[in-house]
Design the sequence.
């Protein structure tokens, strides 16, 4: 999402940067480019007009000050950034927990918006933060919803209250009410109530959701909406606001290829904050929504804060400390450490998602490279390292031809893939040494070993064709490649 928007913003600012001294007509032309970009990005017309008017007004008002700056286009850039944060809802909001538990969270939205999946994601998210959630399956409309939520609940080890099997036609209001009673008596501190959706907005849907709302008095009613439906998201939100009423929005499917219109229009048109964002089918593809991080992504600056947080979460605290100590003490970085890093990266999600958070990730050139990345590469790399003996992992210098051949056979890869990995590992070790003398974070907000372990774009790591024979001109290298 946002690729095309991000590119258009970048090109508008590239023109502005070339100007040096900025005039009112430069502001008009950049505002016009932004207007066209937003309209093309499916952003609601009213939001576009207000946004552009505010940028123009603020920039023209600040022009005398801007002209004193040594980097005038940067000043306009800051105005656009702060206005983007505003239309995305301003400061990030958090769940409002009830003073007297349980906190009741009700999910509402159309069928297919991702509500049931989200109930599981939210339960896992809250559990990981030390809460004791109870899931309540009050979507008795969609034939499979109760089973789907029960399976999700089992997979994350969260209790669920659902109607007895075979009693799918029960009353959703009483299921929701009894769920709250159970939570109170068993001291669950959060209850997540999944409700029925329909394919379209209809009276029956609104009536049922309203009844559940009145019966359980939720602390938070979250309106769940699929970001892929573009402008329809705004229309649906308005109908839900009138028919049921909600406190905040959850945007799902932000990983899709929609143009971003829903994300950019919904907070401004509903005047309700976007509380959570879901960007994938996995239960961990979920977090609070941060307007400032989203604005930064739209402006092509990436989302380093999320990247650093994900890295921190993925790396086990003790392992990270051990690595840091090693790093500071100037000890060798081994393939054991490398393996640990690969496993942590796998926990962070797909490589394209990780790299998509870097500045410039939305540029056409970088996008092409990211799209070409092969996520199975991490699995192959792991298999190779796991086929090495502990001594080899500690001292890769002993990896002669026959050892490499054995490792290739053991991992089901080719000798040239083993060679590639060893080369890449040496380069990473070298990078660690350089970083030791300088920038600790490697400039990416990542722990150093992780930054070193990350395959570089365009490196031979990407899309290694299976079992392809290498043709090195160097006889010694060829002997190693062929396992002699
Ligand atoms: P419900 O009818 O609102 O309960 O929707 P579901 O939870 O069953 O989700 C509908 C479909 O969307 C399922 O196939 C989910 O796996 C998928 N889905 C949910 N959230 C996301 C997301 O953030 N990204 C992607 N790509 N798919 C999602």
Sequence:
């Amino acid at each position: 999402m946002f690729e095309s928007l991000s590119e258009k913003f970048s090109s508008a600012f590239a023109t502005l940067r070339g100007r040096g001294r900025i005039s009112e007509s430069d502001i008009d032309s950049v505002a016009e480019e932004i207007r066209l970009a937003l309209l093309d990005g499916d952003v609601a017309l009213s939001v576009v007009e207000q946004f552009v008017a505010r940028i123009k007004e603020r920039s023209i008002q600040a022009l005398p000050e801007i002209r004193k700056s040594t980097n005038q286009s940067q000043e306009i850039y800051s105005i656009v950034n702060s206005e983007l944060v505003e239309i995305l809802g301003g400061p990030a909001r958090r769940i409002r927990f009830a003073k007297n538990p349980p906190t009741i969270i009700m999910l509402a939205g159309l069928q297919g918006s991702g509500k049931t999946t989200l109930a599981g994601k939210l339960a896992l998210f809250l559990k990981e933060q030390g809460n004791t959630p109870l899931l309540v399956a009050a979507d008795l409309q969609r034939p499979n919803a109760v089973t789907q939520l029960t399976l999700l609940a089992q997979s994350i080890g969260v209790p669920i209250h659902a109607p007895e099997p075979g009693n799918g036609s029960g009353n959703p209001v009483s299921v929701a009410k009894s769920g709250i009673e159970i939570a109170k008596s068993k001291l669950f501190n959060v209850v997540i109530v999944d409700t029925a959706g329909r394919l379209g907005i209809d009276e029956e849907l609104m009536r049922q959701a309203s009844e559940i709302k009145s019966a359980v008095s939720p602390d938070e009613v979250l309106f769940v909406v699929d970001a892929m439906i573009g402008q329809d998201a705004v229309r649906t939100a308005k109908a839900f606001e009138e028919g049921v009423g909600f406190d905040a929005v959850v945007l799902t499917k932000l990983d899709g290829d929609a143009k971003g219109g829903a994300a950019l229009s919904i907070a401004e048109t509903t005047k309700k904050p976007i509380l959570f964002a879901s960007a994938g089918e996995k239960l961990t593809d979920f977090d609070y929504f941060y307007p400032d991080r989203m604005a930064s992504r739209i402006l092509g600056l990436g989302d380093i804060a999320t990247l650093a947080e994900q890295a921190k979460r993925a790396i086990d605290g003790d392992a990270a400390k051990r690595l840091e100590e090693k790093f500071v003490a100037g000890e060798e970085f081994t393939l054991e450490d490398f393996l640990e890093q690969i496993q942590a990266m796998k926990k962070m999600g797909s490589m394209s998602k990780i790299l998509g958070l870097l500045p410039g990730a939305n540029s056409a050139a970088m996008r092409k490279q990211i799209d070409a990345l092969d996520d199975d590469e991490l699995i192959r790399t792991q298999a190779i390292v796991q086929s090495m003996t502990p001594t080899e992992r500690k001292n890769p210098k002993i990896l002669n031809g026959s050892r490499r051949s054995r490792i290739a056979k053991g991992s089901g890869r080719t000798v040239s893939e083993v060679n590639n990995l060893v080369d890449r590992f040496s380069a990473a070790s070298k990078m660690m040494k350089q970083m030791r003398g300088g920038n600790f974070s490697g400039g990416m907000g990542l722990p150093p070993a992780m930054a070193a372990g990350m395959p570089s774009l365009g490196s031979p790591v990407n899309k290694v064709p299976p079992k392809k024979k290498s043709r090195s001109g160097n006889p010694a290298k060829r002997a190693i490649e062929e396992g002699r």
The longest helix spans residues 415-436.
